[in-house]
Structures are given as structure tokens and as C-alpha cells.
Amino acid sequence: MGATGVWAEAGPSGAGWSAWPGGAERRDADGEVVLRAVAAPDGGWWWSAPVPGPARIGLEAEAILRASGPGVPDAAAFLARWERENADAVAALAADGRPRRALGREAGLRVWRWNRCLAAYAERLWAVELLPCTPVAVRLVAPQHDPVTTLTAVVWTEGEPVALPEADLLLAVDGPDAVPRAVPMVALRPWLDRLERRAASHQFGRGGVEWDAGLAHWIVDEDDAAALVGAVRELGAVRTLEPLWPREVLDRELLDAVRRARVAVERKPSL
Predict the structure, then answer these.
(1) pLDDT tens for residues 258-270?
(2) Residue 39 pLDDT > 60, yes or no?
(3) Within 13 Å of residue 180, how many CA atoms lie on the same side as its CB?
(4) CB neighbours of 48 closer than 8 A, spacing ≥ 6?
(5) Is 145 left (phi over 0), alpha (psi -120 to 50) or beta?
(6) Alpha-carbon distance 198 to 166, whole Å?
(7) CA distance 224 to 229
(8) What is the number of alpha carbons within 13 Å of residue 33 lying toward its C-beta?
(9) pTM for this prediction
């Protein structure tokens, strides 16, 4: 894994940075590094974001830079540079022809938007709407021994009131050490669609910031949660899945584009 970066006069400031002597980094809601700033030997700072990776890394870095003080890299220019160098990095990674995990760009961004607003949304639901429901994160998982398939999943502790986002799988557990029961969420739709459903475009304000939910979701209160347990136990089955780091899941459109470009070059007749 590499990094793309630019020099700027100012270094990081504000909350959210993890610092070490001579540098600092920011991580996203999944705990992955999305932006680093390292003091340059001759003054100034070297700002970088990792490549290759999905589009959300560049967008997260851009959002951090937009919220930073003067003297840091221009956010739009940084993002444009990251996108170019990320495309080159994805092309280099895909050159060996091995299978790579991928998710549609927009699907990945919807998950990113949802996960980054969870803390603010929980505060909104509990303190403003008086709904004791906890929004739960969306994770990426894969069937065991499958090098390609990427699924979105939500882990739910049975009986817990939640704001439940759309995903491929609901992984229900009845205790901290329990093996999850996996239920395709499409199988639960007839039951879930009787509940309050909020659209992916749902917006809310918290902490002086306007947030987009990113994913359609259902409000599952205490009574609904108790009923959902029965549906899950009827439809669910134990399934072996492997957790994925979001950064290893590339944007499908970009991966397909660099592969097509490589094939076109290989087929081009030599003069």
C-alpha cells in the first residue's frame, strides 16, 4: 500500500488527530487511516492519503482538509490528485490478473455516509426524538474461501432496539460469544416494511452539522425488536463469514475500467 501526498505550509490542528513525534494521522469510522501529515525536514508538512483504495478514502481526506485551518493543502486539488494516483495504484494492483474484491462505488459511499454519522444520529434519536434506538454500523464480509464476493452486513444483538440499515445480511447474536445467525435481509423485508422506514436521503442536524443518513433504514423499537427475534430464528442459519477491511474492497467501476484499459493495450497490434 502506498500513499499520495503534497507539501503544505501548515500542519494538522483540531480534534480527532492521533499524534506521534513529527506527525499525526486521522482515522475514519472503521478505524482505517485516511490522512497523514508528517513534518518535512526543511519546514512545512507532507500530507498524504493511502492508495489504492475505495473512493471514500479520498472523500474523507477532502472533508478533513475542508474543515481545517489555513495553510493546509487545497481540499479539491488534493482530492483530484488522489483520484489520479489512486487510479494508477489500482491499475498496478490489478496487473497480475488475480481476483480482487470490489463493491460498486455508490454502494460503498452509502455505507461510508451511514457509518460516519452513527454517533451524531444516536444522539439525535435519543436526545431529540426520544427514540431509544441505537444506529448500528454496516460491515463488509465475505463467504469463507471466496476471494471475490463482498457482502454488506449488520450485526444485531437480539432484542436490542436499533436503527437498522439496509444491507445484504443481518447477523443476529444472542450473546457476546454467540455464533451469529445470518439472514438475508431481503427475506426480512415483508416483516421490516411494516415498521417506520426512513429513506437514504433522510437528513438530520446535530452538533451544528447537517448529516445525510446515506442508507435507508428501519426504526426498530423495543416491542418490534422482540418480534424480530422470532423472525430471525425462523429464517436464520449459521454461516461462516470472514470480516473484511473496507480499504481492501475497491470500487468496482474503477477496477473494471483499468482492466479494460489493460486488455485494450494488450490487444493493440504492434507496428
Answers:
(1) 999 887 777 666 6
(2) yes
(3) 18
(4) 3, 4, 5, 6, 35, 36, 37, 38
(5) left
(6) 10
(7) 9
(8) 17
(9) 0.90
Q: What is the pLDDT of residue 270?
A: 60
Check residue 1 and give its pLDDT. 54
Burial class (CB in 10 A: 0-12, 13-18, 19+), 201: exposed
Angle at 256 (CA atoms; ends 251, 257), nearest 5 degrees: 100
Q: How far apart are the C-alpha atoms of 140 and 14, rounded to whole Å?
A: 30
Q: Return d(Cα 124, Cα 128) in angstroms, integer.
A: 5
Distance from chain centroid for Cα 97: 25
Locate 179 and state its grid cell: 455464533
Q: E-assigned strands of the chain?
A: 2-8, 18-20, 23-27, 33-39, 45-51, 102-103, 134-135, 138-143, 151-157, 162-165, 169-173, 181-184, 196-198, 203-206, 209-212, 217-220, 237-238, 241-243, 250-251
Q: What is the pLDDT of residue 87?
A: 95
User: Is the alpha carbon torsion for 13, 76, 254, 1 positive or negative?
Assistant: negative
